[in-house]
Design goal:
Largest interface: B-C, 91 and 86 residues
CATH architecture of chain B: Orthogonal Bundle
Chains: A alpha+beta (374), B mainly alpha (283), C mainly alpha (307)
CATH topology of chain B: MetI-like fold
Number of strands of chain C: 0
CATH topology of the largest domain in chain C: MetI-like fold
Shape of chain C: flat
CATH superfamily of the largest domain in chain C: MetI-like
CATH architecture of the largest domain in chain C: Orthogonal Bundle
Distance between the termini of chain C: 41 Å
Number of strands of chain B: 0
Order of helices and strands of chain B: HHHHHHHHHHHHHHH
Radius of gyration of chain C: 27 Å
Oligomer: heterotrimer
Number of helices of chain B: 15
CATH class of the largest domain in chain C: Mainly Alpha
Strand content of chain C: under 5%
Distance between the termini of chain B: 37 Å
């Protein structure tokens, strides 16, 4: 009962914050704040104290393996799940108590979410019908949106007559028709063919930027996340391991998990000489920020971060060569049973057939270091 | 101070929110419906029990004709199940694989037994079957196969549709297995839930079928109960309830056992009419 | 491969297209081999008995000549009443349990944590759907009969149902008893349709601003309607065919077609009218066949949407 008074003042405080943030968002776009969200399903902790701030107009991707909690987080924002603890702020106001139907968000589901008994036009106009728009307005606006996603000709077709890619475009149009404050996408491209996926990726990103809608995008495909998002949040076990712009995620991963989940990462055994230097591959290399205390470590290097030259007395033998176009990826077996992948221009790789003895080296740039068991 | 309280509040688990969550998952009206249904179905049972008296149950088993009748019904259930499955599974597999165009036709044919009232079928069968067959209860078993077809086919068809039949059989034959080996070792184990559902339905059907049995003058368990009614009402009621409970127990056993088996191999729960996919709570 | 080559060489050169056509015709005939056992069984156990009934419906039992008399008798008088009563009963005993069954199925289906509950109800439905005849009749006589338990309770509460015109042996009473196996049947046949209702639709509708009743009005209802109607039709067929329960309850007080047909088997026939029962049977089959055609059409429509 004592908490009631505290709640009142808390509400007053949040009202002040709200008015400030509303002023900010009046510039355009809605801000979304996830504060310390937790959710447990039976014995599993799906979300463990997750916090994330999404700026107005930003597209944030939640990336991670299945079971990491990204979909749970999205569904909490949408209102289909309620967090056990924590709060969800939209434009500074806590919407945890607001039902999903009143949150004014547009959601695109993974697949088959179009209402099968309505044609594309009626599907897109559904949200407007719920908002009591009249038939003329609905038809007009739905038509505009179908035009925007390039499906004006399919307006009268039913979902079972449309391809997967077309269905998802209609679903996107449907979500945008209501001019939502936030756009939520739950792995919308996972069920589609590779080619269609690429086309849709571009389309979604372009639309989102044009409209300036704050967007939260969930995916397990890192290429998708990196190519589309302003910022990417990598999740594991219900927690956010890092939230950063794609290039920072790639070049300065905060943890070994992020380093290996995003792109390819080599692990080389090394030994820390001191907190700033590590001995690896026979050379001393500076360590990038955040090294564990001491001892045996794994040095994390990207394939393009290693150099390789032919050398009869080298430290490794090429075991595989994959042609990727301008570059080729060599798999080199080093002494000590370590295997590394090295990217070289294909012209150089031409001579390095499997079996060639080579010397793999690290340039003296700072490297990431992780403890041996991470 | 305010910020601190707010922070504390957000960290502590909100019991109200948990309760609201729970309520959203199973609202009141569902309980109301199930309650009304429960009353409707259980009340007559209880009333009949009161009427018959618990003591009547004990004496059911020693009544003349009880065991022969049960034995006959059991034999018929086994016979019908075996024949139906032996007939329907290969046919369904064959049609799915070789002549998929016939699937519609097959489906329509299997609906026929539902269309033809048992009474009418009894009339026709009695007319057509040879006297020698009529003398044995096996005629009844053969007729029951026809009655069981629709349900068995629906279950098997659902099970087959859940498999990638073509790939499985091609893989099996590429590894050197013949037709019968493929059927026995590859397909049947994967159809376990469908087979169980079918068995469940067939057994329930046979143990409850009265019309054709009585018209064809066989003393199966349901028929025996009726005959007995003439002599001793209490006993008859007790026997009816016994039949009900027995069938139910039997079905629960099959379903639970089957579900446990199929869960081990990654399948879903055994349900009647369809094969349900196990629900995964994931991200 | 090698076998056919050998044949070709020993027979000498043969005209291409004719052989090809014959061979492909042979191949498609051969394809049907696997269906033969089933076809034979269906023919013997189902088709032939039915044809016999259908033919006999138009035959004079004494002379064997073709006649419409049987059909005539079957569509007039007491038999016509029987048909009418049976149809009314079947409508009542399909629509009412249809609605209840759908509600129960929905109640157990959407319970996420209620897997055990679902299992129990489904198994119970399997059992009760096949429960009928004298045992069932007895159950209800013991509870709703004129001197029975529930009647007594209702009397104590002030509702004398018998004074109000209720009786187990009228159409409404029989309907009440029929519901005991019709409701479980409905639960069983509508569950697959419910499983076809994707949760994504519900969530998408909610996300776009729809409240529960709006979801049902615009999406859930329309999508389920073909299946629901189809299942009600199935129940209609089931009620029309029902014999044992009707026999046990009414024993002739209400004219019902299925009972009348059975009486022909028992030999309670007026001389010369032996084949009238077959005509009645044929009529029943025709009615149900029409109903089933609609059922199949509705299921096709449902399948298109509930993929």
């Amino acid at each position: 009962m004592a908490t009631n008074a505290a709640d009142d003042t808390a509400q007053a405080a949040s009202a002040v914050t709200a008015s400030v943030t509303t002023a900010t968002s009046a510039r355009g776009g809605t801000s979304v704040s996830l504060r310390n969200l937790s959710r447990t399903f039976g014995a599993t902790r799906a979300l463990d104290g997750m916090s994330l701030d999404i700026a107005p107009g930003e597209l944030v991707a939640l990336l991670g393996p299945s079971g990491c909690g990204k979909t749970t987080a999205l569904r909490i924002v949408a209102g289909f799940e309620t967090a056990d603890t924590g709060e969800l702020l939209i434009d500074g106001r806590d919407v945890s108590g607001v039902p999903a139907s009143k949150r004014d968000m547009g959601m695109v589901f993974q697949s088959y979410s179009l209402f099968p008994n309505m044609n594309a036009l009626d599907n897109v106009g559904f949200g407007l019908r719920m908002r009591k728009a009249n038939a003329v307005t609905r038809r007009q606006r739905a038509g505009e949106l179908l035009e925007m996603v390039g499906l004006a000709a399919q307006a009268k077709q039913f979902p079972h007559q449309l391809s997967g890619g077309q269905q998802q475009r209609v679903a996107l149009a449907r979500a945008l028709a209501i001019e939502p404050r936030v756009l939520l996408l739950d792995e919308p491209l996972s069920a589609l063919d590779a080619k269609v996926r690429l086309q849709l990726r571009e389309q979604i990103r372009n639309l989102q930027q044009r409209l300036g809608t704050t967007t939260l995008f969930v995916t397990h495909d890192q290429e998708e996340a990196l190519s589309m998002a302003d910022r990417v949040g990598v999740m594991r076990g219900g927690k956010l391991e890092q939230v950063a712009a794609p290039d920072e995620l790639y070049s300065r991963p905060a943890t070994a998990f992020v380093a290996e989940f995003v792109g390819t990462m080599n692990r080389l055994p090394g030994e820390l000489v001191d907190s700033g230097t590590v001995a690896v591959l026979g050379t001393m290399v500076p360590v990038q920020d955040g090294a564990p205390a001491s001892g045996q470590v794994d040095v994390l290097v990207r394939p393009e971060g290693l150099t390789v030259v032919q050398a009869a007395d080298g430290n490794g033998i090429v075991s595989n060569r994959t042609f990727l176009g301008a570059t080729s990826r060599l798999t080199v077996l080093l002494s000590g049973d370590t295997e590394v992948q090295v990217d070289v221009p294909s012209t150089t790789a031409a001579a390095m057939v499997p079996g060639t003895a080579v010397q793999v080296a690290l340039p003296p740039a700072p490297v990431l270091v992780a403890s041996r068991n991470e | 101070m305010v910020a601190l309280t707010k922070a504390i509040n957000s960290n502590r688990e909100d019991p109200d929110r948990k309760r609201a969550n729970a309520r959203k998952r199973f609202p009141v009206w569902r309980w109301v419906i199930l309650l009304i249904a429960g009353v409707y179905f259980l009340l007559p049972l209880w009333a009949a029990l009161r009427f018959a008296g618990i003591r009547a149950f004990g004496t059911v088993f020693v009544q003349p004709g009880f065991w022969p009748a049960i034995w006959l019904s059991t034999r018929l259930a086994i016979m019908t199940t075996l024949i139906t499955l032996a007939l329907m599974v290969p046919t369904a597999v064959y049609v799915h694989l070789r002549v998929p165009a016939m699937r519609r036709l097959l489906e329509s044919i299997t609906i026929l037994p539902i269309v033809i009232p048992p009474v009418v079928l009894a009339v026709g069968v009695l007319q057509v079957s040879p006297g020698s067959l009529k003398a044995t209860p096996w005629l009844l078993g053969l007729v029951y196969v026809v009655l069981a077809m629709p349900f068995a086919y629906r279950a098997i068809d659902a099970g087959l549709r859940a498999l990638d039949l073509k790939t499985l059989t091609e893989a099996s034959s590429s590894l050197g297995a013949g037709w019968s080996t493929t059927l026995w070792r590859v397909l049947l184990p994967n159809l376990r839930t469908a087979l169980l559902s079918s068995t469940v339905l067939i057994v329930a059907l046979v143990l409850g079928e009265f019309t054709i049995a009585s018209l064809d003058l066989y003393v199966t368990f349901p028929v025996w109960i009726v005959q007995f009614d003439q002599l001793n009402a209490n006993m008859s009621v007790a026997a009816s309830i016994f039949a009900l409970v027995l069938t139910w127990l039997f079905l629960m056993l099959i379903v639970t056992f089957g579900t446990r088996q199929s869960r081990r191999t990654g399948g879903g729960a055994v349900t009647l009419f369809t094969v349900a996919r196990a629900e995964t709570k994931g991200n | 491969m090698t076998q056919t080559e050998e044949v070709e060489t020993t027979l000498g050169p043969v005209t291409g297209p004719r052989v090809a056509r014959a061979r492909s015709a042979g191949r498609s005939m051969a394809k049907l081999v696997g269906v033969v056992p089933f076809a034979v069984y269906v023919a013997l156990g189902l088709i032939i008995p039915m044809i016999v009934v259908a033919i006999d419906a138009f035959r004079n039992p004494n002379t064997g000549a073709f006649t419409f008399t049987n059909v005539n008798i079957a569509t007039h008088g007491v038999y016509a009443t029987g048909i009418r009563e049976s149809l009314i009963l079947s409508v009542l005993a399909s629509v009412i349990p249809g609605i209840f069954g759908a509600l129960i199925a929905y109640a157990i289906f959407t319970a996420k944590r209620g897997a055990f509950l679902r299992q129990v109800v489904i198994t119970a439905s399997g059992v009760f759907a096949n429960f009928g005849g004298v045992p069932l009749a007895f159950l209800f006589i013991a509870s709703f009969g004129s001197s029975a338990l529930v009647t007594g309770w209702l009397n104590d509460l002030g509702f004398n149902i018998y004074n109000a015109g209720f009786s187990l042996y009228t159409l409404s009473g029989v309907t009440l008893v029929y519901m005991y196996f019709q409701i479980p049947l409905m639960v069983l046949v509508i569950l697959p349709a419910l499983e076809g209702l994707r949760p994504a639709w519900r969530e998408a509708a909610e996300n776009l601003g729809a409240r529960t009743w709006q979801y049902w009005r615009y999406v859930g209802g329309p999508v389920l309607m073909p299946s629901f109607l189809g299942c009600v039709l199935l129940l209609f067929g089931s009620a029309l065919s029902a014999y044992a329960t009707a026999e046990a309850l009414t024993a002739g007080t209400i004219p019902l077609t299925s009972i009348q047909i059975a009486s022909f088997l028992n030999g309670n026939v007026i001389a010369g009218q032996q084949n009238v029962g077959k005509a009645l049977g044929l009529g029943m089959v025709v009615i149900i066949a029409i109903v089933m055609v609609f059922y199949v059409l509705l299921q096709r429509r449902a399948a298109k949407w509930l993929r």
